[in-house]
Known about the structure:
- By secondary structure, the chain is an alpha/beta fold.
- It contains ten helices and 24 strands.
Amino acid sequence: MQNKKITVLKNARLITPVRIIKNGVLVIKDGKIADVGAQGEIIFPRNARVIDVEGRYVSPGFIDIHLHGGGGADTMDATEEAIEKISVAHAKGGSTSIVPTTITAPIEDIIRAIENIEIVRKKNLPGANVLGVHVEGPYFSPEQRGAQNPKFLKEPEPEEYLGLLDRYDCIIRVSAAPEIRGGLELGQELRKRGILASIAHTNATYQDILRAIEAGYTHVTHMYSGMSGMKRINAYRVSGVIESTLLLDELTTEIIADGHHLPPSLIKLILKAKGLDKVSIITDAMSAAGLGPGKYFLGGLDVVVEDDVAGEFEVPEEEGNYVAKLLTRDAFAGSAATMDKCVKNMVKLVGLSIQDAVKMATINPAKLIGVEDKKGSLVKGKDADIVIFDENINIIMTIVGGKIVYKKGK
Ligand SMILES: [Zn+2]
Ligand SMILES: [Zn+2]
């Protein structure tokens, strides 16, 4: 009789943070990684279900710590059904863990979305796991709003956010502008509670960023989007958030690797300055992720998703390479990508090795939100969150907690 609780993946190219093990074997038992290594080193358990992965890559599942939606649904829909759709759409793209992200809106709407995550994250979802919620806005600088609705931007008031932080354990990340009134106090509160404090949609100067780091901010949201650069004040040059992030080792950052937000040259510059350990890949996906072109909404604003054109901009020339923009087409509005596309872009456009690109989609984000003891690498004892893909990073299978949630062609 087969023991259904034990699964063995054999003939795998196993991706670890430091090497690729050819002809590898990975044993899954009770939802955890029970053993991992080269064939010959691993004892095959008896009566296990054996899956021959035919030399494909077996990678830790992707962890997306910044996404608004997917599969036609948005975090702000605030329903269980919406989160299920997002969970399924992103599992298809290789994500095994996601952090659904709210957007600037009336505070009651944000609370409803957080409340929904608080309930849903304890349930078994049909695709990727929900680790918690990322609250992006409304505490932002109007000058750097991007696709955040300016009508609902405000300054952080303790009476408002303390209640939220007390009530909802699921808040694991907050993006805010540290230079606006109350921004530093918010950073201190987040640090005290072990919540990732992230600098975002901000017009800060270098001096503001130094104060932000002292207060407790450690991360910078979507590098190069919604942030100040060097400016001239009278005769003097002042560094903005861009230069501060590149310069200061205290800060980690993330890049939207959909192939549109950042050209390879800027991604290379970020990696040159920050190194491979301090940069994570995110999708910042909106509801169109996993679907096709069309008209969508994001935070009450009209969004168009369409094919992107190559040309003077360094964008990938590929089928299904959709871009999400505000209707005016003068700003991006999240992305239509899933993590597989982002990892592929890092390899094909930026020229990273698969191992390095995977690291930025797995162990790096796991560390940022403090789940690296359970997730982010193929190590004995960690959760069996696994993605199998081919040479071109086409997802073949996604496994969450030992359970197959997506299989190509099924
Ligand atoms: Zn944003
Ligand atoms: Zn976002």
